[in-house]
C-alpha cells in the first residue's frame, strides 16, 4: 500500500521512511500521519532521529526508501522549495539569520509571496508579536533567546503553511521562555495549520492532539496525548523512571 493510500484523508502520510547520512542509517522504516489542523508531537531521546525525520520531510535529506505523501501526492522526490510552495514550512533549531533585521527575517519566510501579501501578513504578525514590532529594524542577533524563537515562529507563519515542521522550539531556552513559546503557539497558530513538533521537553504535550515516541529511528509508540502522558515508555525516556 502506498503512503497516499494508507489514509487518503491525511495531510501528511509516511510509509516505511528510511534514511541516514552516508554509511550511517538513522531512520529504519517510519510510518506516521498528520491530519489537517492537528498538532502532533515527535518525542524521543537524544539521537533518536527526530531532526533527521524533519529534515527528510522538508527535503533537506533524501528519502532512501519508503514514501512521503502530502495532500495525497508523493513529495519525496521534490526539492525543498517545491514542498514549501505546496504548503509546508520548516523551523530549524537555529531559526533566524542574526545579521538581518527582524523585518528582513520575516520577509524571507515569505520569499515566494507578492510584496503586497508580505506587507499585509507582516502587519498581522507584528500585531501578534508586539515585542518584535517594537524592534523591527534591529538585527535579529540583538534579540534575547526567547525573542529569537518568537521571530523564528513569525518567520514561518508568514506563509500561512498547512503544515509547520518545528525542530525543538525549546532548545537553549530557560523554562520561563519555554512557557512563552508554548503560549505563543497556542494563540498564533490558526486552525488551518497543522504542527509536527520534535521535542525533548514533555511540557509540549499540553499542545498535542497526538504524538509518536521515536526510538533508534523507529516509532516505538504512538497515541493520543492522554495515552502518551500515561505511558511507561515515555516516562522511561524522559524521566528515567
Ligand atoms: N549531519 C550529520 N551527519 C552525520 N550524522 C548525523 C548528522 N546529523 C545527525 N547525525 C546522526 O544521526 C543520529 C540521529 O540524530 P538526530 O539529530 O536526528 O537525533 P534527534 O532525535 O533529533 O536528537 P537531538 O534531540 O539530540 O537533536 C545521531 O546518531 C546523529 O549523530
UniProtKB/TrEMBL annotation:
GO terms for biological process: L-amino acid transport. It comes from Thiomonas arsenitoxydans (strain DSM 22701 / CIP 110005 / 3As). This is ABC-type branched-chain amino acid transport system, ATPase component. It is an enzyme of class 3 (hydrolase). One of its GO terms (molecular function) is ATP binding. Pfam families: ABC_tran. Belongs to the ABC transporter superfamily. Keywords: Amino-acid transport, ATP-binding, Cell membrane, Hydrolase, Membrane, Nucleotide-binding, Transport. PROSITE patterns: ABC_TRANSPORTER_1, ABC_TRANSPORTER_2. The gene is braG. It comes from the Bacteria.
